[in-house]
Amino acid sequence: MTNFKSGVLTTAIATLGLTFGAAAFASEKPTVVLVHGAFAESSSWNGVVAELHDQGYPVIALANPLRSVKSDAAYLSDVVAQTKGPVVLVGHSYGGSVISNVKADQDKVKALVYVAAFAPEQGENIAELSGRYPGGTLGPALAAPVVLKDGNKDLYIQQDKFGVQFAADVPAAEAALMAATQRPVTEAALHEASGAPAWKKIPSWAIYGTADKNIPAAAMKFMAERAGAKKIVEIKDASHVVMTSKPQQVAKLIVEAAEATVK
Questions:
Q1: Where residue 130 falls among pLDDT bands split at 50, 70, 90?
Q2: Crossing angle of helices 159-166 and 172-181, rounded to 10°
Q3: Would you say residue 3 lies in a domain?
Q4: For the CA atoms of the chain, what is the radius of gyration?
Q5: Are the C-beta atoms of residues 80 and 87 closer than 8 Å to each other?
Q6: Is the pLDDT of residue 150 over 90?
């Protein structure tokens, strides 16, 4: 029995090494690390992953803990440190705040791509940024919070409002699946002050939709311009999950960022 357990552990470690060492099979290309945001999960990137794989890019769709900006960024930093070769970080929504707070190792992280995402300045928080411009309707769409033993609260979007609020340009059946599998973010994370932003040292790109109801398009334009984004793509009538509804356009921008920064 002991030998069996040891063998399983060895296999698991080897598999993990293959995942984080994927860049070794495509040494000319960086590993793209995709960081989902609140009310989403890793499969929201499936279309983008398929596009990137078709072009030979190794990809990690990170399972973002969604507990706090600082701890989530620390977890991402650990993953980046154990990934061979250069990395392009891509953040969606709250995930943009996470990639902004990652350790800014320019020898490792070559580009940041913000996909319908927050790009906060030091001291700013997500709740304040999303309310700075009119148009966001997330508040009324939230379900009653789940109160945790530590006093924090987990937030979800009401499933019957998920499609209209979060994924209006995604087929209804797919949006219903996304609603059922959404992962919660803590309320505290949305009010947590951001640290020194990585976008001040690492070049960035941005893409978002004009019909986003979670983060007003004006807010995302402001943040992208402030970060000095090399290119800003605005997709008419796209929802908050632009990576799910428009994976080709999102993948195209990621590839552009990769090609511009990794030689």
A1: very high
A2: 120
A3: no
A4: 18
A5: yes
A6: yes
Beginning with the edge strand found earlier in the chain, give each strand of the sheet holding 153-155 in spatial order: 146-147, 153-155, 185-186
**What are the backbone angles phi and psi of residue 238, rounded to the nearest 5°?**
-80, 145
Binning pLDDT at 50, 70 and 90, where does residue 234 land? very high
Token output for 149 = 């033993």
**217: domain range?**
20-261
- The better pLDDT of the pair 9, 171 is held by 171
Can you give the CATH number for the domain in which 230 is found? 3.40.50.1820
What is the C-alpha separation between 74 and 79, in angstroms, rounded?
9
In a domain, 223, yes or no: yes
The count of structural domains within the chain is: 1
pLDDT on residue 27: 52
φ/ψ of 113, rounded to 5, equals -125, 125
User: What pLDDT, on a 0 to 100 scale, did the predictor assign at position 16?
Assistant: 43
Residue 187 lies in a domain: yes
| Residue 205, strand partner residues | 113
117, two tokens: 């995402």
Judged by average pLDDT, the poorest of 15-29, 36-50, 172-186 is 15-29
Tell me whether residue 2 is in a domain. Answer: no
Cα torsion 45, 187, 184, 166: sign: negative
